[in-house]
Amino acid sequence: MKIYxxxxxxxxCIVVVKNALEELNLKAIKVELGEIExxxxxxxxxxxxxxxxxxxxxxxxxxxxxxxxxxKIRKTIIDYVYHSEQKLTTNFSDILSEKLGYNYTYLANFxxxxxxxxxxxxxxxxxxxxxxxxxxxxEFSLTQIADKLHYSSAAHLSNQFKKVTGLTPSxxxxxxxxRRVAIQNI
Length: 186
Known about the structure:
Elements: E1 2-6, H1 11-23, E2 28-32, E3 35-38, H2 44-55, E4 60-62, H3 65-83, H4 92-100, H5 104-115, H6 119-137, H7 142-148, H8 154-165, H9 169-174
Helix pairs in contact: 3-6, 6-8, 7-8
């Protein structure tokens, strides 16, 4: 049985969900960002208990088709921003359409309607938060971060970062209090 989870955006979320499933003695075939697959059907009572456990950390079970589509869009974007090692050889819109099985225009309009932001702006917001994370970790140069996040150059990354945050990446790096936004709040 497939169960979809809203706001599941990082490895820690996966751990929380796995622990909740174990606590309820539910055997999972897989647990990924935004999605759980169990060996057997989950009863309404088990769903209610699972929901209560994961709600404590800001996660939410999705029942409606619309919510599932939005989470699949988010998951695909998060995978691209956080886990994609190679530059795209095709448009992201084509990848999203192929992966979700819907026309991109439908997905883009639906996402904008529900989330009050465009897919492009959501991608930019995620990239900015990823840049902040990588700057804080101090493991990569700005050029390496630009390459890792598929920017054409460090200058392009810097311009977009400043446009969104009002700060240059170097100014952000020197801030005493690093200001990041949790993915589920984007």
